[in-house]
Amino acid sequence: MLTTVQIIGPSMEPAMQTGDYWVVWRTKRLRPGDAALLQHPLRPELLIVKRLIFSPEPGWWWVQGDNPHSSDDSRSFGSVAAGSVVGRITFRYYPLRRRM
Q1: What is the pLDDT of residues 71-86, one digit of tens each?
Q2: With the C-alpha atoms ordered 71, 48, 92, 89, is the resulting torsion angle positive or negative?
Q3: What is the phi/psi pair of residue 90, to 5°?
Q4: pTM as predicted
Q5: Average pLDDT over residues 22-35
């Protein structure tokens, strides 16, 4: 199943920027390096986009934003349960091109 997400905030820059729209594939087939949509572990109603870095133990992920100076991620809240991952970010569909 596919869904979409709009990026708000600088935590995934430069790969993802505020105003970008991305398609999310709702899957549990995930691997380190994937960008993923997940529930914030301290605020489950908040969906966030982070990079899956490694699995410290089965059923858990260490996640980080691509912009370390502007990201609330596992460095502040620890590992996240694999069950909180909604899916993998697959491709940007808007804007088709960015102005340089």
Answers
A1: 999 999 999 999 999 9
A2: positive
A3: -110, -50
A4: 0.93
A5: 97
CATH assignment of 2-94? 2.10.109.10
Return the beta strands (E) in 1-100 as ranges: 2-6, 21-25, 35-39, 47-54, 60-64, 80-81, 85-94
CA distances from 26 to 1, 3, 7 (A): 5, 7, 17
- Distance spanning both ends of the chain, measured CA to CA: 33
SS3 content of the chain, % helix, strand, coil (to 5): 10, 40, 50
Is pLDDT at 100 greater than 70 in this prediction?
no
Domain ranges of the chain: 2-94
Record the tokens describing residue 43, joined without a space: 């605020």
User: For 43-80, how does the pLDDT look when each residue is reduced to its tens digit (9 = 90+)?
Assistant: 999 999 999 999 999 999 999 999 999 999 999 999 99
How many contiguous H segments (helices) and E segments (strands) does the chain have?
Answer: 1, 7
Side-chain half-sphere exposure of 50, counting CA atoms within 13 A: 30
